[in-house]
Design brief:
By secondary structure, the chain is of the alpha/beta class. The protein contains 11 helices and 13 strands. The protein has helices at about 10-25, 70-80, 95-105, 125-130, 160-170, 175-185, 205-220, 235, 240-245, 245-250, 275-280; strands spanning about 5, 25-30, 55-60, 80-85, 110, 140, 150-155, 195, 200, 225-230, 255-260, 260-265, 285-290. The structure holds iron/sulfur cluster (2 copies). It holds the Pfam family Fer4.
């Protein structure tokens, strides 16, 4: 697989350095865009670099605003078959720019992970090859009562999963979930703390839900889970919990509708508590385990 990386800023540089650890032989070219380019660009053609080689996959990271549209020109020039454009704040890649890119690259598989650590396999040969190593965190926690070690099967593209894994050693297993979120903040994760209308949450919180999901999947338990009781009248309320859940909006089954009733899956639930506040029938309760 031949990869070209288009990047900008500290975050883009961090991602580039991290993915080089696995894909150095595959990365045939990189191109850095200046930071602080105008948000609105009239003639994007002026920003298309010369002499980029043909490639299979374009990875675009750290670009803000209209400059993301350069991806269309570069994909056409290089013959890229697949494109990954990450964003970690709402303003970075507005819906309108995403639509423009998708519409202009009809024969190219485009994905727009927000945040980058939410990227999962999509059934595309090149994107899925990338996701073998980078995307939504996948880990294996070793230890009985305390964490002896953590194997990283898939790292967040920014490298946060590896950092979190190295710093979880020694913690009791039942603190792993909460500590993984704390360590993400220490890394530091560069995802925005601004409210994102698309997800009804901040992107930083979404990143936290993804690392906690990885921890829970490895451990097979959570210290706190939400349950839906028999007061649930989903047909009457229109499944408000499902509609408000930021994790559902990310495409995960945190809330499922089964037999006209909502069910919450602790593996994906990020415990944001929005559904509890939203439920008109007080049907969602939290259960805490020690
Ligand atoms: S749990 Fe509450 S908000 Fe969710 S479907 Fe049931 S009644 Fe509606
Ligand atoms: S607490 Fe409710 S709304 Fe929040 S992630 Fe969990 S299921 Fe979704």
């Amino acid at each position: 697989m031949r990869i070209i990386v288009l990047y900008s800023g500290n975050y883009g540089e961090r991602v580039l350095n991290n993915i080089l650890t696995k894909f150095a032989p595959n990365i045939i070219s990189v191109y850095e865009f200046e930071e602080n380019l105008p948000e609105y660009i009239e003639d994007i053609e002026n920003y298309v670099p010369d002499n980029l080689p043909e490639c299979d996959l374009l990875v675009v990271t750290g670009l803000h605003g209209d400059i993301n549209l350069v991806t269309c020109k570069i994909a056409n020039k290089t013959g890229a078959k697949s494109v990954i454009i990450e964003s970690h704040s709402q303003k970075q890649l507005p819906f309108g720019i995403r639509s423009e890119i998708t519409e202009s690259l009809l024969n190219v598989k485009c994905v727009f992970p927000k945040p980058f650590c939410s990227l999962k396999p999509v059934g595309d040969i090149y994107i899925d090859e990338f996701v073998k190593y980078f995307g939504a965190p996948k880990i294996e926690i070793i230890g009985e009562k305390f964490i002896k070690s953590v194997i990283v099967h898939r790292n967040a593209p920014c490298g946060s999963t590896k950092y979190i894994a190295e710093n979880l050693t020694g913690y009791p297993l039942n603190e792993a979930e909460i500590e993984s979120g704390n360590k993400l903040h220490n890394y530091p994760c560069l995802a925005s703390m601004e409210f994102d209308n698309e997800f009804s949450d901040t992107i930083l919180h979404l990143a936290g839900y993804k690392i906690k999901e990885a921890v829970k999947k490895s451990l097979g338990f959570s210290n706190m889970v939400l349950n839906v009781n028999s007061n649930c009248k989903g047909v009457e309320c229109g499944f408000k919990c499902y509609n408000i859940c930021p994790v559902v909006k990310m495409g995960e089954k945190a809330v499922e509708i089964i037999d006209k009733t909502a069910k919450i899956n602790y593996l994906y639930c990020g415990l944001c508590m929005k559904c509890i506040r939203e439920c008109p029938f007080n049907a969602i309760i939290s259960l805490k385990y020690s």
